[in-house]
Write a structure and sequence with these properties.
This protein is mainly alpha-helical. Among the domains are: 42 residues, no CATH class; 70 residues, 3-Layer(aba) Sandwich (His-Me finger endonuclease fold). Helices cover 40% and strands 7% of the residues. 8% of the residues are buried.
Length: 274
């Protein structure tokens, strides 16, 4: 006769579970307690940058994107000039040039701007840290005759930025499918309806190991099957679980390496059987 286990109540979230891990807590609360020192959820709302007079929101280590990048690259957050200022990747316009080149496939870029120093010569100095390089004519590629430094439309108060970020976070949690669709279209060029058709054709299983996705997000929900694509052509090949997708990546999509790995496993399998 099967024994029916009684439910126990978590000492923090008061949920009924079959097993308390430790300290009278369920697994979720106990893991948060180990990681953060408290079983409660951390406040993940974005705060203003910790640098004085900066009106941007922080992205990491209490710093906005500009100051965080500066800290990672130079080890300091101030903008004082130093020995390598203006050379190669340390040039203040280098990130802007990379941003333009990243959009070259979709928006176009003139041949001359594939050379970083030609780009610097044509665009000149950025008028301010808040100016963005934009095209004047949307139907023509970026170039010396088709760009402008555009100032921000308005200087949004930091309190409004915090409010907007909080709303966006809540909206993303409430409407995840919308943002999944955007990410799939931008990264892989397929619609979420096409993804659903592929998943249905594979019966929701990995195209290699024929298993369901086992890995989970931090909130405990199971991840979707990963979209596998060719890194040379960009063509989508199928849907894989995280392990198989990472495995192909580690083998660099090289069939010869995979065949050698199969031969290696079979060789040692025979030796162990003997």
């Amino acid at each position: 006769m099967a024994v029916i286990k009684s439910l126990e109540e978590c000492g923090y979230c008061k949920r009924k579970v079959y097993h308390l891990v430790a300290k009278g807590l369920c697994s979720a609360c106990y893991n948060r307690d180990r990681r953060n020192g408290t079983p409660g959820y951390q406040d993940r709302s974005r705060k203003p940058c910790s640098i004085e007079d900066c009106q941007e929101l922080s992205v990491a280590q209490g710093l906005c994107e500009k100051h965080y990048r500066r800290l990672k690259r130079r080890g300091v957050v101030n903008s004082e000039r130093y020995e390598k200022w203006g050379h190669g990747t340390d040039h203040p316009l280098y990130d802007t040039w990379r941003w333009v080149k990243k959009r070259a496939a979709r928006q176009g870029i003139c041949d001359e701007w594939n050379d970083f120093w030609a780009f610097v010569r044509d665009v000149g100095e950025r008028p301010s840290g808040k100016h963005r390089l934009m095209r004047v004519h949307k139907d023509r590629p970026y170039g010396a005759d088709n760009f402008e430094w555009r100032p921000p439309v308005t200087d949004i108060p930091v309190e409004q930025k915090v409010s907007n970020a909080t709303y966006q976070r809540a909206y993303r949690l409430a409407q995840p499918r919308i943002f999944q669709a955007i990410e799939m279209k931008v990264k892989y060029g397929i619609t979420i309806e096409q993804y659903d058709e592929m998943r249905k054709a594979q019966d929701g299983l990995c195209a290699i190991c024929s298993q369901e996705e086992k890995s989970a997000h931090r909130n405990g929900t199971v991840r979707q099957l990963s979209i596998d694509h060719c890194h040379t052509t960009g063509n989508v090949r199928g849907l894989l679980c995280g392990n198989c997708n990472n495995g192909l990546g580690h083998f660099k999509d090289n069939p010869a390496s995979l065949e050698r790995a199969i031969t290696y496993l079979r060789k040692h399998e025979k030796n162990e059987a003997a």
